[in-house]
Amino acid sequence: MTDIPDFSKGDGLLAAVAQDAETGEVLMLAFMNAESFAETLATGRAVYYSRSRKRLWRKGEESGHYQEVRQILVDCDGDAILLKVRQQGMAACHTGRRSCFFHEVSAEGVRIVSEPVVDPLALYSGKHD
Amino acid sequence: MTDIPDFSKGDGLLAAVAQDAETGEVLMLAFMNAESFAETLATGRAVYYSRSRKRLWRKGEESGHYQEVRQILVDCDGDAILLKVRQQGMAACHTGRRSCFFHEVSAEGVRIVSEPVVDPLALYSGKHD
Q1: A127 has a pLDDT exceeding 70
Q2: Interface contact A124, partner B, CB < 8 A
Q3: For the range A117-122, what are the long-range contacts, defined as Cβ-Cβ under 8 Å and sequence gap of 24 or more?
Q4: A10-90 maps to which CATH number?
Q5: Which residues are A82's β-sheet partners?
Q6: What does the pLDDT look like over B38-67, one tens digit per residue?
Q7: Which of A11, A13, B38, B70 could form a disulfide with B21 if both were Cys (CB 3.0 to 4.6 A apart)?
Q8: What is B10-92's CATH number, 3.40.50.720, 3.40.50.300, 3.40.50.1220, 3.10.20.810?
Q9: Is the ipTM of this complex over 0.90?
């Protein structure tokens, strides 16, 4: 029987995708450990684990722009997480963009396909992982 | 200057999310190495790297249900990939479901929120990672 989610995989860190619950836009991808998952479930706000800072990362702790979690889904084999969220403050990305996924890669190269919706300096200076 | 994508991170494996290009549904999450990314870009079909089988995993190679890639997006810091795809054959999941994300986790426990749309035995016996 697979644990849902199964933190015995991925050295205790599972990839977690945040998707806008209303528009379906994929906002970001980060990682969760068991503690961040439990806190997300308990508080209804997205909590990740920062691999670079090696600590819990309560999304919005610096900017106030937290993610209100509407639904938590886990995949077939228990090692990936999908959060359907309401993003406070417009921008999920530290660059001030709505989504972190703004580099389009094609045979022609890399192109930036979205612009900031808020001033990143007004958010915070950190980056998310 | 960050490489987009940057395979120097994550021990050469980056998380990749496949999203239905039309409906916005998140179908699955898997991993890519540089070789699978290059082949995806060159062929227009999603190619992942199977961590369990330690080899390239050409999605649909057994079932014929490949993913036609409409757009490739990479995140702000170069370490996550979003594929907007057209999923052939209805089901992205080895269980025969449209999406791999069918376990809803809440304070009440785990609940299955979608059912197979195709017979998984008609797909293949393998699982995706």
Answers
A1: no
A2: no
A3: A117/A90, A117/A91, A118/A89, A118/A90, A118/A91, A120/A91, A120/A94, A120/A95, A120/A96, A122/A96
A4: 3.10.20.810
A5: A17, A73
A6: 999 999 999 999 999 999 999 999 888 899
A7: B70
A8: 3.10.20.810
A9: yes
Tokens linked to B98: 């449209």
Chain A CB contacts of B127 under 8 Å are 76-77
Q: Tell me whether residues B19 and A26 touch, CB distance under 8 A.
A: yes
* Residue B41 to chain A, least CA–CA distance (Å): 7
A28-33: which pairs have CB atoms within 8 A and are 24 or more residues apart? A28/A92, A28/A93, A28/A99, A28/A100, A28/A101, A28/A128, A28/B75, A28/B80, A29/A100, A29/B15, A29/B17, A29/B75, A29/B80, A29/B82, A30/A57, A30/A59, A30/A128, A30/A129, A31/A129, A32/A5, A32/A81, A33/A7
Q: Do A73 and B105 touch (CB under 8 A)?
A: yes
Which residues on chain A are in Cβ contact (under 8 Å) with B28?
A: 75, 80
Q: Encode A15-43: b = buried (16+ Cβ within 10 Å), e = exposed.
A: bbbbbbbeeebbbbbbbbbbebbebbeee
E-strand stretches of A1-129: 14-20, 26-32, 47-50, 55-58, 67-75, 80-87, 101-106, 109-112
Helix boundaries (H) for chain B: 34-43, 120-123
Name the percent of chain A in helix, strand, coil, to the closest 5. Answer: 10, 40, 50
Helices (H) and strands (E) in chain B, counts: 2, 8
- A70-79 confidence digits (pLDDT tens): 999 999 999 9
